[in-house]
Structure formats: C-alpha cells, structure tokens
Write a structure and sequence with these properties.
8-stranded parallel beta barrel; 13 strands; globular; membrane; 339 residues; dihydroorotate dehydrogenase (quinone) activity; alpha/beta; 12 helices; single chain; TIM Barrel
Length: 339
C-alpha cells in the first residue's frame, strides 16, 4: 500500500512541505480512539530475542529512527508506534535557528536518495526539553550541535548548553560535528578540537551521579587515517561509542537530475561506504566500543550487513521515507529469522 499508493502521492509534493504535512497527519491520526493500538499491532514486533543491551541501555529492538526526522521532539511518541526501538531527536542547538534558505531538500528518485542542506533548523533546545518532559517510556537519543553564528573556537560552549539542558530528558547523547551543512562544522572532527570537545563533555558527564552515554557521529568521508584518529579519541576521552555515518558530500555514481545540489547525501548510494566505515572501526578497534550503524539501510539485508560488520544497533532515515514504516518490521523479522 505504501509503495503503490501513499509514496507516489507524497512524492508529488515538495519534500520539505510533505514532511510537515506528514507530521500534522500523524498527530491527528493518533488522536483517534484506538489508533495507537491498531498501528502498534501492525508494525511492532515484540520478542525477547530482539532485545539489546548497549552502553548500559536496554533496547526493545535494535532498529532506531535517526536524527533529523524529528528534530524538535514533536512526534517521538507517535513515531515509536511504528516499531522503532529508540528515537533520536535533533540536531538541537542552544538558540532557535531557521536553517539555510529554501529550497534545501531534494529527492533523488532514480538513486533512492535525498540531498539535504537544512542547516540545523530547529526551535532550540529549551522548547524540545518541554516536550520531552512528557515522555513516558520512549528511549530517546539527544543529538546536539552548535548554532551557525557560533565560531568554532566557542563551539564547546554550545554543546555544553545543550548537554546540560537535555541531561535529565534523554537516554544517550550524540555529538554531531559531521553535518556538511553548517559552515566549518566538520573542522571540529580534527583530532585536537574534537578531543577537547569530547573531554569537556565527558568531564561534565562524570560529575553526575548517573552519567549518560555520549556517542560521536562521524562523516563517511573520513580517510582511514582519520578513522584511526577517531578510535584513539574514543579511547582517550572514554566516550561510549560511535554513530557511523552521517550524510556524505560524495556524488559518485548518481544519475538523478538534482545530483549536484549542495548538501549531504543520504540513502542507497551511502549503503556500501557506511558499512565499510563500520567494519573498519570494529576491526581496527577490536570491537572496543559499540557502533550504531546508519546510512543507506533500504532493506532488511542492508541492516543485517551493518550488524554483521560490527554495528550493535541500526538507524533508519531515508529508507523509512522510501520504503515506509513496514521496513522497521521487516528488519526486526529478518533479525529474528537469523537468531
């Protein structure tokens, strides 16, 4: 139904407009009596064999929703009914910001991909916290970044503001220094500034009675040498793990008309590279830390490949848009089949 009816209708609308339309429709859907029960019966797979304990958190299943879909924590409760084991919100910044100028989101249908240059558009961390106060059991990751106007030398302050504001309301943190859509942000992936940033956050984290896992989200465009640096940095700072990977700036092998639009590319063209990064980090570190695998998961087989490459959990974004919510169920069913 999704592939033959719903997706063709949605794909006839501007991608950013359809995102907000979908949010509004889902919010109204779940106001209907019995709707939550019906949706959960259709999409949620409950089985003890799907449970995973990773960085001290018990996940009901290993399939999560990646950051960027529910940036402002407006729909995490509703989205959890489609079978996700966890939801990552953000990227959030200290102050609200509109992001980059529109048009900034492009479907590459022929490539089963998306290019976005959203630019951390969000309503600010304070608004998101108010919504998260109403959470009643959804496992939430908090993806944090810096405001566009904040110079890199002051970036640590922005990350700290978000960390402190979100601490009581998320289960784990993700430090996003790998988006290609905030000017100079990726410079923070260099060894010295990244070590300083993560050390500062971890030092604050360890002052708390119950510290939260901190993960680092990295770009797929890092070289092997840079990935080895990432392994060293994780060891030196003591953070919990890595999310591999963010969107790519590569345009290799694309055929769609909008292929040269600026921004980060996600979807099927990223499948192979994201898996390569996961395998490299897992093997070179001797599985020293957990990895959440994300990037080009368009089928159950793509998810299994990432888990077999060394990921402990996986996340969807573009695959969820192209394949629909049924993909979450299909992945969990395939994991059970192989367990």
């Amino acid at each position: 139904m999704y592939e033959k009816i719903i997706r063709p209708l949605l794909f006839n609308i501007d991608p950013e407009k359809v995102h907000y339309f979908t949010f509004s429709a889902l919010r109204k859907l779940f106001l209907l009596p019995g709707s939550q029960k019906l949706v959960r019966e259709k999409f949620v797979v409950e089985d003890k064999r799907l449970e995973r304990e990773v960085f001290g958190i018990k996940f009901p299943n290993p399939v999560g929703l990646a950051a960027g879909f529910d940036k402002d924590a407006k729909l995490y409760k509703e989205l959890s009914n489609f079978g996700f084991g966890f939801i990552e919100i953000g990227t959030l910044t200290p102050k609200p910001q509109p992001g980059n100028e529109k048009k900034r989101l492009f479907r590459l249908r022929e490539d089963k991909a998306i290019i976005n240059r959203m630019g951390f558009n969000n309503g600010g961390v304070v608004e998101a916290v108010e919504r998260l106060k109403k959470n009643d059991g959804v496992i939430i990751g908090g993806n944090i970044g810096k405001n566009k106007v904040t110079p890199n030398e002051n970036a640590v302050d922005d990350y700290m503001i978000c960390f402190n504001a979100l601490f009581e309301h998320v289960d784990y943190f993700v430090v996003n220094v790998s988006s290609p859509n905030t000017p100079n942000l990726r410079e923070l992936q260099d060894k010295e500034p990244l070590t300083r940033l993560l050390n500062t956050l971890q030092q604050e984290n360890l002052k708390r009675p119950a510290p939260k896992p901190i993960l680092l989200k990295i770009a797929p465009d890092l070289t092997d040498s840079q990935l080895l640096d990432i392994i060293d940095i994780i060891k030196d700072t003591g953070i919990a793990g890595v999310i591999a990977t963010n969107t790519t700036i590569s345009r290799e092998g694309l055929t769609s008309p909008d292929q040269m639009e600026a921004g980060g590319l996600s979807g099927k063209p990223l499948t192979k590279r994201a898996t390569e990064v996961i395998r490299f980090l897992s093997e070179k570190s001797n599985k020293a830390f957990p990895i959440i695998g994300v990037g080009g998961i368009m089928s159950p087989e793509d998810a299994i490949e990432k888990l077999e490459a060394g990921a402990s959990l996986v996340q969807l974004y573009t695959g969820f848009i192209y394949e629909g919510p049924q993909l979450v169920k299909k992945i969990n069913k395939e994991i059970l089949k192989r367990s």
